[in-house]
Structure formats: structure tokens, C-alpha cells
């Protein structure tokens, strides 16, 4: 459909177009979810791995502790808690919802593609040429965030919360929904946070933020980052610092992106004024 045809579309036509983009996105999620549902053993082996003492993150922090000469709480074969299902449909429900969220994560690039197909006709030709790069970069950042959440935030959270005890009289028997909620929130929230450079790119294009604004409020951003880290990590300072560092690096990268966009638009305006 050409740009001129898009411009002539009525409000209802736009809604119909949006409906088909949503349907195709939902079908992509459904297909991946069905595959994930069938590959139950593989999916749940990944999800339960962070509760084992042999998980790669625990081994790394254990070795780091030995390197600096102190005993680390990460040096353990098994975490002192068990996962249980206390409802008849508990395991089946966890299987269904885990498959759906796996579908959302894996199909994320295609969802971005459908979003871009919907909004691209309203953009200028040079902006539409950025579609391929936008989908690639946004997807890469999301998956890096997902891996960051899985290999760092998830094990830190599980290790802290799963071993925390107020009294020897209380044992940690974790419900399956509670366990998956920690894993899911850690992974999804990290994936979204890692989209910060993309968000800043579009906000700069829209004129909402500028490089000067981002630099001016860098200290305020640090406080926001620490708050985000406190929300998505267990309440200990070491974990919050570990998580805050890459988020602040993303913020600094966002400043560079914003500055590049601002310089590019300034040059274009200068060329247009001279023409």
C-alpha cells in the first residue's frame, strides 16, 4: 500500500490495518508458544537451572570470592528450598503461561516488525529506510537484556530470597507460580530496560529530550537507576551496584545517540536554510 493510499485511509481503515498487524503478531506468539509448550523439558530445564548451585553465575561469584580471599554464599551445591505446586492446576497453568511468555520473548523481533509496518507509512522516506536497522538493534538490545536478567538478576534474586530465613523454624517451600514470577519479572524487565537507547533515540527525534537535558539530569538519572535496580534485584547493596553499572552505561550510550541525532538534524536544518 502506497503512502498516498495510507494518507487517504479513514479512521476505521486505520483500525482495520492495526487489527491485522495485531492478529499477525498474536499468531507469531501463538506459534512460538506451541513450540515452547511441546519442548517442555528443554524450557523448564532452563528455568530451573538458576536454583542449582552449579549454575554458571554462582560458580563465577564463588571463584571471585576465593580470588579475593573470602568465603562466598554462592559456593553451595544446592539452594536450601524446594519448589512445590499447591493447586490441582498449578503445574499445568505454569506450563501454559511459561509457553506464552516464551512466545512473546522469542517473537519479539517479529512484533517490532509489525509495529514498524504500521507506523512507517506516516514517516519520511529517509526515516523509513531505518526500519531494518531499528528492528535489528532493538531486538539485539532486548535479547541482551533478557540474557542479563537471566544470568545475573535472576540468580541473585533466587539466591537471596530462596536462602533468606527469619528463623530455623520456617522452611522455604516456594510455590511454582512465585518462582516463575521472579524469573519472568527479572528477564522481561531487563529486556525492557535495555531498550533505553532506542527510547531516547525516538524521544530525541520528537524533540522531547536533548543531549543537554540528559547531561544536566545525569545525577537524577543515577537515582532513578538505583531505584530501578532496587526494584528488580534483591535488597542488598552489592546486587544493586552490579545491576546499576550496565544501566548507567546504557544511559551514557543514550546521551551519545541523542547528541548524534541532534547534530545530524542541525546539519540538515543548516543545509535547508542555505538552499
Descriptive account of the structure:
The chain is mostly helical and 275 residues long. Helices cover 75% and strands 2% of the residues. It is built from 13 helices and two strands; from the N terminus they run H-H-H-H-E-H-H-H-H-E-H-H-H-H-H. A two-stranded parallel sheet has the order 1-2. Helix 5 (90-106) runs parallel beside helix 9 and helix 10 runs parallel beside helix 13. The protein starts with a helix and ends with a helix. 23% of the residues are buried. Keywords: Cell membrane, Membrane, Protein transport, Translocation, Transmembrane, Transmembrane helix, Transport. Part of the twin-arginine translocation (Tat) system that transports large folded proteins containing a characteristic twin-arginine motif in their signal peptide across membranes. One of its GO terms (cellular component) is TAT protein transport complex. The chain crosses the membrane at residues 21-49, 94-113, 134-153, 187-208, 220-235, 241-262. Belongs to the TatC family.
Amino acid at each position: 500500500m502506497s503512502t498516498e493510499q495510507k494518507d487517504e485511509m479513514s479512521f476505521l481503515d486505520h483500525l482495520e490495518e492495526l487489527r491485522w498487524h495485531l492478529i499477525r503478531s498474536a499468531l507469531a506468539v501463538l506459534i512460538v508458544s506451541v513450540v515452547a509448550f511441546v519442548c517442555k523439558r528443554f524450557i523448564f530445564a532452563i528455568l530451573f537451572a538458576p536454583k542449582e548451585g552449579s549454575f554458571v553465575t554462582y560458580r563465577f561469584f564463588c571463584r571471585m570470592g576465593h580470588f579475593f580471599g573470602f568465603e562466598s554464599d554462592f559456593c553451595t551445591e544446592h539452594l536450601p528450598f524446594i519448589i512445590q505446586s499447591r493447586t490441582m492446576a498449578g503445574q499445568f497453568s505454569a506450563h501454559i503461561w511459561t509457553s506464552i511468555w516464551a512466545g512473546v520473548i522469542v517473537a519479539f523481533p517479529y512484533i517490532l516488525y509489525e509495529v514498524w509496518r504500521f507506523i512507517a507509512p506516516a514517516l519520511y522516506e529517509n526515516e523509513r529506510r531505518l526500519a531494518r536497522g531499528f528492528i535489528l538493534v532493538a531486538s539485539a538490545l532486548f535479547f541482551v537484556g533478557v540474557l542479563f536478567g537471566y544470568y545475573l538478576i535472576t540468580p541473585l534474586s533466587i539466591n537471596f530470597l530462596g536462602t533468606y530465613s527469619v528463623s530455623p523454624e520456617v522452611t522455604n517451600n516456594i510455590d511454582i507460580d512465585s518462582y516463575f514470577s521472579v524469573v519472568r519479572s527479572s528477564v522481561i524487565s531487563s529486556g525492557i530496560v535495555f531498550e533505553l537507547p532506542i527510547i531516547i533515540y525516538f524521544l530525541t527525534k520528537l524533540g522531547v529530550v536533548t543531549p543537554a537535558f540528559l547531561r544536566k539530569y545525569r545525577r537524577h538519572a543515577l537515582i532513578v537507576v538505583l531505584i530501578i535496580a532496587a526494584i528488580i534485584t534483591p535488597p542488598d547493596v552489592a546486587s544493586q551496584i552490579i545491576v546499576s553499572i550496565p544501566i548507567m552505561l546504557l544511559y551514557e550510550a543514550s546521551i551519545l545517540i541523542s547528541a548524534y541525532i541532534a547534530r545530524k538534524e542541525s546539519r540538515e536544518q543548516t543545509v535547508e536554510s542555505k538552499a
